[in-house]
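Task 17 of the worksheet. Students: predict the tertiary structure of the chain below and write it out as structure tokens. Keep your answer in the requested format; marks are given for formatting as well as content.
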Amino acid sequence: MSLYKDASLVMIPTAYKDGKLYSIRPVPEYGAELVTNGGFDNTNDWTIAGSNVAISGGKANFTNAVTNTEFLQQAIIAPTGVQYRIQFEVSNLAAGDSIKVRFPFQDTTINSNGLHTLYGVGTHADFLRITPNSSTGTFSIDNVSVKEVSNIGDFTFSRGSNLAATRVDVNGLIEKGRENLFTQSNNFSHSDWNVKAGTFTQGVADPDGGSNAWSWTALNTDPYLYQSGKSLNGVGTLSIWVKGVGSTIGKNFELRNASPPYKNVVLTGEWQRVEHFNNTASGTSVGFEYGNPAVAGDVVHIYQAQYEQGLVATDYIETGASTAQAGILEDLPRLDYSGGASCPALLLEPQRTNVIESSEYFDGSLWSATNITITNNDTTSPEGIDNASKIVLDSGSSSSCELRAQNNKSVTLGNDYTFSVFAKADEFDKIELDFSNSRMDDAYVVADLTEGTIISRGADNTSDSIEDYGDGWYRITLTGTAIATGTTALIFRLGANPTGDGSSGFHIYGAQFEEGSYPTSYIPTYGSAVTRSVDGTNSLAVTTDINQQDTSWTIFYEFEEDYGIYQDSIRVINDGSNKLNVYTRNTDGFRFYYRGLSKYITGSTGTKILARYDGSTLSEFHDGAEVSYTASQSGGSSYPFEIKLTPSHIVGIKQIVLFPTALTDSECIALTTL
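Model answer:
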């Protein structure tokens, strides 16, 4: 739409990275480079404090440098109120170490290798300083840059709960955060690996067509390779590529996932990625052994070791001096494609905790089974990997078949709680979700997994639902209100199915129990409850260099209509007493609330909503029509304009557009038409 070329701010959720949500407009403008010798071509222009900091090899190198007393510094004047972009590259960051960057009078902690971009507002600081944030630190810095920047319309994003959040990706699959807990994951000669009776040589042809695999030669009968302190207090999966050579073809290769049972696989002359999951306690060693017994001189080839949370091995994540993550990270904006959407919405949710300690592993001590058998990793889950379980009714069993969480969950009188699970039909297709009647009264729901319908519900359900996740999977949800304070059981009942035959059943994945009147996105757990923190952005101050003038404005929001319940979600304008918020009315759409007027100006709601101020009159348009206007009212200037996205309820945003003018009626109608 040609209108967009006249907008001063356009945020359509497409471009993002960890900690940043980029707007299409405005385009940032950068000043001259303020750092000299940022590539460390020589030792000029930098002040070095301490003997453990040195410039060599085109980098600034810190080796066990002491925080604050040993540092790298360059004089840069930063006048008050001027915004700056700071960029630099980190490499060779030792495991457990972190970096402190100060500019201007603002300390930022860096915990990972790679290119980092920071923003800060000047406060008359006169230097850029880099030092360890941990008591000592080992790392290298390169390509340091500081530039004045203006016309910024990007949102700084935070959530702060690493690996707790998920989204539905462009393929319609649930995407999680993942972490390889091994360091030096393909450097087996490194001291991070503890080696018993073996030597390692790299340069072997690998399964990816390169020559980065390793030859592991036995020195005696018991070659063993492991890392200490890497195990999880819960469910974890160990994996590695392995290949037998000569005498080792046909011999065993053992995966030792912290504690027994271990897993043996038979080596072949071809590459195979082998894996083993186990429910373990923390603090023990994780690794590999072969031969059992081996003969001195035996050889196997190995490549790419990984240890991670979960029941199956996922795509490999390369690590160096520290662990590495992939997928949905702690501060990554979630662009969500739920419901088969072709264009994503920015998913914003309040803080929630999944108090079910083991949401995917139903065969352990945290679940209790009666007259059923659990088959782990039996089929493909809504993640697109084979980590869904099959629930099989024992032969001859019917009405007393159930799976319940071993630890009852606390509830408080009058509060709402939501219980959910993903399920898929196999030979049987009925599942019931149930609470304890003594705490949640008559609240239960029975779903038909073939028809995708609710076929029975309790009289005291607050709400219930069944949502299609594709490939036969449904998310079934039950919400109830506690009638007493205490604990409630969480139960999956199977009695609505025919009598069991010992092989027939259905599949489940992703159990969740959370306080709240509606379900939020899936929070995976592997041994203890997990909290996903609130999604949120910084307050984006839309200054005059973005919005160009301060006499009139138009702001437009498009929301995803399928996210359920919303309320008091987003601050739009912060201009003294003339604040403008987006609210909702029940569950049927959005509208603006004018704090300066202490009222709504319409009872209507919509998913495409627009507010316009022409200097004297406020108007509001919803879904292609003008719904109300209020004459002779102050709508506030467009400077200072502030946009902040922090929800108290779940919401999906498809676009935000800000104009420095009052659009015409026809333009407002065109912009909001569904």
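Marker's comment: The chain is about 0% helix and 50% strand. The chain has four domains: 29-150, 194-326, 352-532, 536-672.
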